[in-house]
Amino acid sequence: MVARTESLPVKRQCELLDLPRSTFYHVPGPVSDAELELMKLIDQCHLKHPYYGSRRVRDWLEDRGHRVNRKRVQRLMRTMGLVAVYPKRNLSLANQAHKVYPYLLRGLTIDRPNQVWATDITFGAPSLGRRLEDVA
To answer: What is the per-residue burial (b if ≥16 Cβ within 10 Å, else e) of 84-106?
Structure first.
């Protein structure tokens, strides 16, 4: 990516990559032993309960005598790449191969008796066809 040995200055390389120079010069500090121990406990919790989010992981840690802030648990889980497993949105999408039946009454003006009939199948009991004017 960005290299000091290039003929192009570091400033110009960072501009071309749309990267702040502070990101190039930043050297991350070492992780403390306490953080590593906490990460190990979070990993154990996540292996037993992969559906736990940061709040429940924090409660799990408190049950074991570790007082820790939820935001710290969130940061460590994000650093470790852990996310809670739960059903996501749109899991029951319609089958694309399923035929879509047209609505045949669209644009139709219903102005006389017995022009349109409807059937109620909601409760599974045998139902008789009813005229719309009887339903209303």
So the answer is: eeeeeeeeeeeeeeeeeeeeeee
Produce one character per residue of 117-134: b if its CB has 16 or more CB atoms within 10 Å, e if not: eeeeeeeeeeeeeeeeee
C-alpha to C-alpha distances, 6 to 3, 10, 11, nearest whole angstrom:
6, 8, 11
Indicate the pLDDT class of residue 94, thresholds 50, 70 and 90: confident
| Alpha helix positions (H), the chain | 10-17, 21-25, 33-48, 54-63, 70-80, 132-135
d(CA 69, CA 26): 26
Q: Is 58 exposed, middle or buried (0-12, 13-18, 19+ CB in 10 A)?
A: buried
- How far apart are the C-alpha atoms of 25 and 12, rounded to whole Å? 14
Q: What is the largest CA-CA distance in the chain?
A: 88
> Nearest CA to 86 among 51, 56, 58?
51
How does pLDDT run across 64-90, given as a tens digit for each residue? 999 999 999 999 999 999 999 988 887
